[in-house]
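fold-stage: in
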Amino acid sequence: MHQDCGRHPVGQAQLGELLGAEPDKAVLIEASDFDMEAAANAGARGTAYANEPGKVESLVRAGADAVIDNMADLATAIRTDAQ
């Protein structure tokens, strides 16, 4: 996702419109608390990538629907979150 679109819920909503995606059908994959909060505010699901030790708790507090700590788990997290 382009940085300018992903940092604000309005940008995420506009990006979703451009792609023809409804917010509740979108999944934002990012590694920061701010991005998880923005996903929740935009009505999208947030899958967080805990790319550093100790990030899991803060990402969950920020609203992440799923947290992964390696990219191999990404497809599973998205499928599970969509159900």
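fold-stage: in (second)
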Amino acid sequence: MKSYSKRIFFFGIAISILFNALSQETEQYRLSLEQAVEMGLQNHQQLKISSAQVKASEEEVKVSKLQQLPSITLTANAFYLGDAVILDQDLAKVQTVDMPHFGNTFGIEAAQLLYKGGVVKKSIEMAELKQQLAELDFAGNEQEIKFLIVSNYLDIYKLINQIQVLEQNKVHAEQLLANVTKLYKEDMVTRNEVIRSELLIKNLEQSILTVKNNHAILSNQMSYALGLPNNIIIIPTEKIEDIVMIESQSYYTDLARQHPHLQSAEKNVEIAEKNVSIQKTNWVPSISAFGGYTMQRPITTSTPALDLYSNSWQVGLNLSFNLDNLFRTKRQVNLSKSQARITRESLTYTRQAIAIEINAAYVKYQEAKQQIALTDKSRALANENYDIVKNKYLHQLAITAEMTDASNAKLNAELEYANAVVKALFQYYNLLKATGTL
């Protein structure tokens, strides 16, 4: 018996140590919405990828500009030259001619493209357009990341509201249990009434546990986006205020002209049209200037061969044209025009999609504002009903089912109001996202 007691004692100590360790594993981290967005823009992995793509596009522009420079080739080689064997018409050996055995050459050549229908200039412009497109993609990703962080932040805010409402209702339920227990001891109610009150408290505790776990899960997800430790519990410090919006829907539609996705679609049209003009340069011959200098040893053009250096240089113009371009270029140009047509249709679709999104977001925000007023009225009625039923219940004028219904109605009304306030703020940010100005 004494050994069993010791085991129970040490088991209790172990449990207490475990709970202390678990409580130390997580810590609360308070931050405002502005801080969360700023940290997300600095640490989110997707934005790091987009930033690297922008830098890569900048390097592509620099590489394209190198086409304006001349190409210069320097060559040098050394070789062993064997004796020359002279054969007659029957391939019989006639004579062996001694040759200088060591040979080497040095040379330098330069070439500069003078004209090819402006292909170099257009290629540089194409690279610059792609750089601008990468920057717009980065801006678009920023909008997406901002909205993601705002959504998660408001979801956490909503969960905390739920926890507070559930805990407040638990306090009311515990007070009710105390009153019911007192009546039970006085033989004024049956044991069944006490059990119902206890079940209500257990249900609230289960709901609180579930919501707290959801809070921890969402905090862990946000920690990766914000560059924070993974064992924190994020506590929003932002004060949710009623946002007054006096602008008309047309104002937000005009505001969307600077939407990154719309600008990206416009930039894709420019890129496609530029590609058409680049393909058309294949109809034009290329003209380039060239020059070179060569020093070679030995001189084998004389008899006997001379173990001396031969120096020569040349400059001139080169005109070239690929004859297969006569039938290939037309197909390539037609393909480029088809691709340009696709980008123009995509631009129209993007405009329509943004307009639809703005209209939906605008309507939903107006609806969310109305929902606040409606849920506030419902909350007031539910609280009034709860107080009436509670008073009747304590005076044995209402049954437990009525009390449970009133409690559930009060809980749902308070949750709906708290969620409506957060939802209105979410819909406001969703409207800003739809315009590309979040």
